[in-house]
Amino acid sequence: xxxxxxxxxxxxxxxxHVRIALLGAAAFSLAACREEEVPSAAFPTLDACLxxxxxxxxxxxxxxxxxxxxxxxxAHVETAPRYDEEALCEAEHGGECMVEERPGGGGSxxxxxxxxxxxxxxxxxxxxxxxxxxxxxxxxxxxxxGTVLNQARGSTSLSPNAFKAGPVTRTxxxxxxxxxxxxxxxxxxxxxxxxxxxxx
Length: 200
Prior knowledge:
Elements: H1 11-36, E1 38-43, H2 46-53, H3 62-79, H4 86-93, E2 97-101, E3 108-112, E4 116-121, E5 128-135, E6 141-142, E7 148-149, E8 154-158, H5 177-183
Antiparallel strand pairs: 1-4, 1-8, 2-3, 4-5, 5-6, 6-7
Helix pairs in contact: 2-3
């Protein structure tokens, strides 16, 4: 008596199923990344944010403007780029810089004024998150955490990672001309989304 047997699945069929499964997993991961993005907007001033909050059809509120501005100021104190020369600070940021005296006779450092702040609407109604941003010598703006913006006012959707805090500079050694030459300066070799016009 002959017993019929089914031939084993070929390697080609198995690998095809694996490829399909991997492609499906990759597509799911990409969709999850897109879902994580949060409504975000950049404002040069608190007043500009409040003006936007008064307009129709926006997620921005007076409360989120004020909360975000406060958070950005706190981050500015801790993470603003600091330099050992005023002229270097002004060249790196294309504008006026302020002097800060180090405690205990540690001398003076120079830091740029905030060019504005980046505001995000946290998921799940948990309020706002914000980071300050500063002008760059190469154009555009950047946060201390590395998010690069094309302009100081606009709206888009960004990953929550765009709001990560930068390194603490308040107690660190200030940047020198040698530091800037070695690293490319503030905001160099960083990535981020360009912002559309507000409401775009």
